Structure formats: structure tokens, C-alpha cells
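$ run holo --ligand "phosphoenolpyruvate" --emit C-alpha cells
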Amino acid sequence: MIVILKQGTTQKEIDNITDAIEKKGVKVNPVIGKELIILGLVGDTSKIDHTQIEANRNVEKVMHVAEPFKKANRMFHPEPSIIDVNGNKIGGNKIAMIAGPCSVESEEQITSIAEDVKKSGANFLRGGAFKPRTSPYAFQGLKYEGLELLKKAKEKTGLPIVTEIMSPYDIDKFVEDVDVIQVGARNMQNFDLLKELGKTNKTILLKRGLSATIEEWLMSAEYIMAGGNENIVLCERGIRTFETYTRNTLDLSAVPAIKKLSHLPIIIDPSHATGKWWMVDPLAKAAIAIGADGLIIEVHNDPANALCDGQQSIKPSVYNNLVTELRLIAKAIGREI
Ligand code: PEP
Ligand code: MN
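-- output --
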């Protein structure tokens, strides 16, 4: 349920209405914008009599939110959210460019790729330290040593770190060392992990699950937001379909769908979506053209010998050309890289 208040309602009146509603056992989430004052009601609203709320002279109207996600809902927050990662914004006019290898392999590897992608225009560094591999015999990542190497690359380049968390036990370490905590596709519905991340105030990059619907994905965002952490960036990374030519099927329609349903920023991962390095370029361009707020792209200096996902990694020179061309598309739609 959302309550829209009349323009000019004073803070005291807002507080009175909030208190009256919260006495009925639901939480009120206020959004005070230039044009609109919205009170979003979160929790069990079945005991709320909307006619009673409508009787208040400051209330413009009361609306029911049909969707099960509330805090992530655009109705609660009509303006698109801009997430601030130590001054680097995700969701505004500037497009977030996250780039780096699938996995951190060595100090030399991660720092040289970080330096290259930074020169090309990347503003975040990705690199997995804890890898969710399908096979237990495949490279599992350098783990805590990988985090240390990411910090060294950050020291050299200033690029904020984006890396995946696998276990709730590592949250304190990630809060300390990492700028954006990635929740991978395989953990999108690890609700205990989501709940714990909701208690932090770190930016969470929430990847869409392998077979998750858009509503299930937004409900996972809601888990984190319900705990109080509203710093969430969604990432479409391809979903399972009957098609086997590509690793997954990139659901580009998720971008306009999320923009309609939610205020959260959404970025695209064309690397995991396709599993083919030569498809990264055209799909990255399509993503920017349709309004994605950023891209996360796997870049490796030696894809043929990468310990993970070499087949979908582009070389730094290819990334450089891609960013040059993406700047033109961004400019054409009034955004910048
Ligand atoms: C990754 O980004 O390295 C990764 C494992 O992605 P996903 O969770 O989308 O498969
Ligand atoms: Mn990968």
C-alpha cells in the first residue's frame, strides 16, 4: 500500500500520519520528493483500513501495490535510484563500466589488467577471488589471497573493487576490503546470505539467477532492502533457455522491464550471458542503446591461458576499441562513459 500526501504537507503532519499507521504494526518508508510525498507501507497491511487514512485531509490518495516487492518497487520511489560507491555513481547519467578478469590469478595479472581497463575508461575493477564453479575439481579462486591482490590493484589504479561473496561467514571481511559485493547468479536465492547483506550498507551487485523470473529477482533485492540496505544494483547475466549455442540467453528485455517495475539501476553482463568473446562487443552496444546503467565485462590479458572463462574474455585492446565506440552510443542517448 502507498499513501500519497498533498504537496505542502508539513513534516509534523507527516510524522503524525506515520505514527498512526505504524501503530497498526507496519513500517512506513517515506520518500519526500520535490513533486510528491509518498509513504510506502511495508509489512502486513491487511489490518489497515484505507478509508481511515483517506479521511485525513493531507492525504491525496491511497493505492494498493499489486506486486509483492515493495521497497524495490518504482511506485514507492518514482525517481530512479543513484547508488553512490565512494563518489562513483551507478544509475545516473554516467554509465558504470566494470571490467576485469573472471578470476584473480596473480598480482601481475590483476594489476596489469586493472591499469589497462582504467586507461580505456573503466571505473570499477572486477575479479573473482571466491569462484562458484560447477565442478569441485575446477579452479576455485585464490580466496583471501585474491582479495589482497585486488586491494593491491586498487592501490595502484584507484579503481573500486567488485568481487563475489559466496558465504555469509565472509561478510565482515568483504565489508572491510571490497567496494561492491557481488552476489552471483547461483546465490541469488541464498536467503540467509541476502538477509545478512541487508544488515550492511555496502553496495550489492545482485545478479539474476540462472532461471529466475524478474519478479523472483526483485524479491531477492527486497530481502536485502527489507534489512535496511537499499544500495542495490541489478545485473542481467543471461538466463537458461532451450538454446545451447550461447552459454545463456541474454534477456535484454529485462532492462526496460526493470526500469518500469523498479527504481534500482540495472547493468548487463554480456560475457556470462553469451560465453563467447566475440559476442561481447555487439551485445554491450545493444545494452547501452536500450538504457542499461552499466556493463560488467570480463577482460583478460591472455584469454587462451586464463584459469577461468577465457572463451568469453576479451583482450584489453578489444575492450579499448569497444569503449571508444560505446562512448558514441552513450552520447547519442544523452549519457556518458
Ligand atoms: C562471475 O561474474 O564471475 C560469475 C560467476 O557470474 P554469474 O554469477 O553471473 O555466473
Ligand atoms: Mn566468469
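-- notes --
The radius of gyration is 21 Å.
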